[in-house]
Amino acid sequence: MIDTAANEDRPSLVQVRSLSKSYRTAHGAVELFRDLSLEVPAGELLAIVGESGAGKSTLLHLLAALDAPTAGHVTVDGIDVTALKSAGQAAFRNRTVGYVWQFHYLLPEFTALENIAMPLLAQGMARAEALRRAARWLDEVSLAGRARHRSGELSGGEQQRVSLARALVTEPRLLLADEPTGDLDSRTAETIFALLQRLHAAHGLTSVMVTHHLGLAGRCGRTLVLREGRLLPLAGGDSPQ
Ligand code: ADP
Q: Are 58 and 21 in contact (CB under 8 A)?
C-alpha cells in the first residue's frame, strides 16, 4: 500500500484509503490509480503536481464527491464521502467543500455579488442575507467596487477572485483548487496565489491545490507528485510537466 501520511500530529481532515479509479473506454480500461492513500492534516495547504493526464483533476473530483471511485474510501471532516447518496453529495458539495477551477465558471448573466451569493441561495438562505454575506466576501477579495459588474466585465484575475469568494462564502472546511492560476499571466497568478494563501490562513482552511507551477507548489506546506498512480514526495529532479 502506498501511504502518504504527513508527519504531523494534527488530526486529518481528509483521509483517502485504498482508493482505486479506472475508466472504461472504447480501447479498454484506463487505470488511473490503485490502492492510493493520503492524509491531509487539518490546516494544511497541500500542493499536488504531476504530468498532464496523471489523474490530478480526477483525484480532486473524488475528494469533492463529483466522481465515484472504483474502490476505496474518501473521508472529509468525518464524512464518508464515498458512501453518500445524491442528496448527501449535494449537501456535502455545498457546505463542506469549496472549489475553484482553472476556468471561473461564473454565470455571465449575474453580477459578481450575485455569483458569490449563489451557493447561499442554493441552501435556501433569504436573498437579503445571502447578498449581505456575499458583499462581505467581495470586500475580503478586495473587489468591493465591482459588486454590480457581470463576469464579462471583469479581468481574468478579478474573475478568479470572485470564484474564490464564491467557493468560501458557505464557510467550508476544505478548499480544493484545480490549476487556479493556470489561465492567468504570471503576475496575476502570483496575486491570486497570495490571496489563496491569505484566505487559507485567515479562515483556518485545509486546502489542496493542483498546479503545474513548481514555484507556487514549493510555497505550499507540502508538495506531492502524482505519477503512475502513486502519490510521492517531490524529489529534486522533478519537472513541472
Ligand atoms: P490531470 O488532471 O492530471 O491532467 P485527469 O484527472 O484530468 O488528469 O485525467 C487523467 C486521465 O483520465 C485522462 O488522461 C483520461 O485518459 C482519463 N479520464 C478522465 N476522465 C475520464 C472519463 N470521464 N472517461 C474516460 N477516461 C477519463
A: yes
